[in-house]
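So, who can interpret the following?
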Amino acid sequence: QWAVSGHLYRRRRNFKTKNYIVVRGIKLKHFTDKDLNIVEPTAITFGKFDALHLGHQATFAYLKEVAAEKNLKTLALTFNPHPTAFFSKKSTALLLDPLEKRKLFASFGFDYYVEYTFDEAFSQMPPQAFMEDVLKRQLKCQALVLSEDARFGKGGCGDFALAYNLGKEIGIDAYTLPNLMQDNGEKISSNRLRSLITEGDFTLIKKLSGRNYSLNGYIIKKENFDGNIEIMPHADKILPPAGCYNTITTIGEKQYSSTTLISNESKIVKTTIKNFQGNISEDFVVIDFDTN
């Protein structure tokens, strides 16, 4: 078990393809394979969900309303590996590492979280087949919520109009909602969040995502702990510019004021807890970059 963002976070293996992720008592069923067979009827949204920003969260809130009206389970569908990484054959810079993303989906109150295998066969699947085979047959979709600019299927040729019209034929009610905009009229997007991280603008990151930018990882050396922490974040996680930052470090269920050093010389992140006294029993930490 780990403590993530100050909350107990458990992951318990159940079957080969299914895990349960628990955040604050909310249990999320997590699947990672293809050819699934969800039994319960679902309301689904799908996408890359790179940032899980306020625009994504607005979609999730609308999905939950639709699901409640129709007595459906909520399901978030994303893809592994990341489609950009699949097509480029290179690693993709991540706004959220896999652990952060799973934890957040659980905290949003989803019933199911599916990381569908993105391979050559899937990349060539027409949008009609995606809706009929993956959404309807495997995931038991009865309602679908998409952003207004969503694209899916081979070559990205599927859009909301196709989803709406085909959905009427196969028993999927399709819904959409406008993109969420910033005060300056610019769409809230994952690309915008990427830029803000590289600029170190933690205040605007929090405004557009609803949470602090954070890093997490296991303490590299816990013996004779004196308040100095070194962690190795996920290799593909986007880091802010080199510098020393005021942070809040969470270990177990305790939070500490800290300073964190980001270096151009190493991927290891070094954090010092201010005026640390005592011992620690956990070895997983979350470091939130303070906006105050």
